[in-house]
Amino acid sequence: MENIQFFCLNYKNEKRKQNMEKRFEQVDINCKFIQGVDFVDDRIVKHSELLNDGIKRVWSCMYGHLDMLNDFYYNTNKEYGIFCEDDIYIHKNFKNYLPRICLDFNTLNLDVLLLGYLLQCKPNDSKVQQLFPIHPLPISRSPFTYHSFPDDVWGAQMYMLSRKHAKYLLDKYMYGYAEMSIKSNNEIPFSADWTLTKEGKRALISPILAVEDNSSVYQDIGQRVFHKECFDAHYEKDFFII
Which residues 6+ apart lie within 8 Å of 60 measured at CB? Predict the structure, then answer.
């Protein structure tokens, strides 16, 4: 734990913050909470005439994630950062698993590892396993498998970055990229799902260690169904702190 710093993004929702504080306390993990980015933030205001409310929300979330990365890189000397959103259940054995996860992360020479994600089945399910090839580990007896994943796997619920890769992402996305993305259709959208979880050598972990807690409300019925199916595929009440 001495080489890892946890961060949680919370935007003006005290109930969610209190829920996450209790969950981290129960697994004995110290997590720093980062305040989200308001629409009146200068980084959004200066382009507000070009942005609708939907894009402002995406930018707000992305800048919030970047602020977590910035705090990690410039205000700690930790080797790994684990970053999450404020609507997740956490695996009860998370802290005990951390040394093994760090070992596997280094062994596989990863830049980013998804500890939580949106997937309607497990990655080793026979129906989809060809889309999620396993990264082989030379060291045996890991309780986890690590899988490559296609670009259409979404979710920044919880992910782990190396210190080096956090700096790379900050250099690329913190300044100037958002503006460039609205001036060109050729750029990847300024969104955490499209960028922070997709760059570098990447993998997702199985079994999953963080799942959405179903506190988010989706107006679109398709989104509601999708998120519920993702939850049902991975949540097991005996394994998660609620």
Answer: 11, 36, 37, 38, 39, 41, 44
- The answer to whether 21 touches 43, Cβ cutoff 8 Å, is no
Which of the 8 DSSP states describes residue 134? B
The answer to pTM > 0.90 is yes
Tokens at residue 14, please? Answer: 């005290």
Count of C-beta atoms within a 10 Å radius of residue 65: 28
Query: How does pLDDT run across 191-208, given as a tens digit for each residue?
Result: 999 999 999 999 999 999
Among 129, 127, 114, CA closest to 211: 114
DSSP label of 97: H
Domains of the chain: 4-241 (3.90.550)
What's the Rg (C-alpha) of the chain? 17
